[in-house]
Amino acid sequence: MRRTIVRNSPVHGRGVFALADLPAGAMLFEYKGQRLSWKEAQRAYEKSNAEDGHTFFFGLDDGRVIDGARGGNSARWLNHSCAPNCEAEQEGERVFIRAIRPIGKGQELFIDYQLTVEGRRTAALKRLYACRCQAKQCRGTMLSDG
Ligand SMILES: [Zn+2]
């Protein structure tokens, strides 16, 4: 049974929504896509959809990125929130999305992208990854704190 669906999001573009009440801890799906180096990913992002602001990137522990736009599944539509209700778990090279709180039917699913970038954080870079999640604790960026 499908537990999630992709539709238009009030936060940004499209999003992933719960089709049923999901318990905390539920494993929802894998985040699929092609593996890119951070440099490759940044180049692809600046070229393709920089105005759109929607990233399909998921950062791996080793600094590489999963590009959900290439070979990805519906997980690529997960929007970022600084107060997420889902988190990503990395198992080797694979990433799985798990609910970290009970999620009510119809609610949008969010993860904290915590994107990491190499080099200096320029103003342009910060603008590119600005966060609009509207959470109380929003840190204003989809980049990680570090
Ligand atoms: Zn935010």
UniProtKB/TrEMBL annotation:
Keywords: Chromosome, Methyltransferase, S-adenosyl-L-methionine, Transferase. Its main location: cytoplasm. Residues 2-114 form the SET domain. One of its GO terms (cellular component) is chromosome. Transmembrane segments: none annotated. The keyword NAD does not apply. One of its GO terms (molecular function) is methyltransferase activity. It is found in: Chromosome. The keyword Cell inner membrane does not apply. Signal peptide: none annotated. GO terms for biological process: methylation. This is Nuclear protein SET.
